[in-house]
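I hope you will forgive my troubling you with a question about protein structure. Could you please explain, in whatever detail you think fit, how the structure tokens follow from the sequence? Thank you for your consideration; the sequence and its tokens are set out here.
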Amino acid sequence: MTADTGTPGKAAPPPRAPVRARRQSLGARLAEGVGGGAVRVFLVVVGLFWLVPTIGLLLASLRTPQDMAADGWWNVLTEPSQLTFDAYRRLLENDDITGSLLNTVYITVPATVLVVVIGSLAGYAFAWMEFPGRDWWFLGVVGLLVVPVQVALIPIAELFGGIGIFGSLTGVVLFHVGFGLPFAVFLLRNFFAEIPRELLEAARLDGAGELRLFLRVVMPLGGPAIASLGIFQFLWVWNDMLVALIFTDSGSQPITVALQTQVRQFGNNIDVLAPGAFISMVIPLAVFFAFQRQFVSGVMAGAVK
């Protein structure tokens, strides 16, 4: 007996040839190779090279002026006995550097807090509150993003001189707040607008007013974006020298201007410049690494939405 091969009168279909695996494109092969061990090793090496200037500055700040004048900072790796904290002790005895470091804190902290608070309130208003000309006002805020800082230096300097705050910490803080708010409002408004409307309406049905809704619902959900904004603003203000160089005097200058003054007046004062520059660098790095998880969450949330 023979097995039934199908419907009578019809020949059985020929067996199909095995389908060849499609050849991957160059882009696909590169994308798969990104997660490989070689790429990770390469990224680690790049990161170490990126840290070389910071490590060199740290080691230079821990050496005496005589050792720094004799050879390079890398010699400390073979002669660790050169390490000393005398430069930091002398730095703390330098009133110009310590005072400018405090001025930097007095400028950076208020400028960051005010931008975050005002930007959050304005971003919520533009995203969820109805008022006349809301879209036009928001377009005006977005248009301020293209205004360069250099254009406003002279007019604002004349304005601050007229009202008596030129050369003070207040003037520098107000300048940074004014130029930080457009980006803050733009960023937070777009983030707050992605919050589900049903969630806000449910809170309103429970009796929550606008202020309570903002504090209890919007602010917790917008935490990653607010943290990202705070890091950006803190780093920008802390590392700024152009605005501080113009709007401060000898009693209100931050650390960036103080170090520049030390270079101009005492070109060989490396025992003060090296530890001062390292402290000026390590504080914003510490802030960034302390809030890096919130920063990455804010960036990824914006990308996913």
